Every structure is written in structure tokens, then in C-alpha cells.
Amino acid sequence: MSTLDNIEVDLTVELGATTMPIHHLLRMGRGAVIELDATEHDPMRIYANSTLIALGEVTVDDGQLRVQVTEKVLRRG
Known about the structure:
It contains one helix and four strands; from the N terminus they run E-H-E-E-E. With 77 residues, it is mainly beta.
């Protein structure tokens, strides 16, 4: 198991996504709102090394934001 202790995995949690021109992004100021393609009821996407592995939701526990995995995504292959 000590070999596994040295493996690094990049985890990303995505609330939603959007596409916009760079000039629009550069003109945004503090407090700007960016509309995403998801609602508050949609599950968050959880990626490991850019591969979708699970869906989840945000929970708050003692003032800490946490991501709770609600569904594993099975890879076909």
C-alpha cells in the first residue's frame, strides 16, 4: 500500500459550465455574475485527472463545504 501513498490525483468538482468570448470575460468586474448551464438542483460533476468519475452535491457541515458523492459514473469499455 505504500506505493499508492505516492500517487497524486487531481480532483475537480464542477458546479456548471459556460462558454463566452475572452473579451467579455476581460470586461467583467468584481461581483459579476456568470450564468452556468446548471441549476441548483443539478448534480455536480466530479472529475479525477479530467475523467468524470462521479456525481455529487454540496453539503455544509460545521461551516465547512463538503462534496458528497451521490452516484458513481461507470466507464464503458
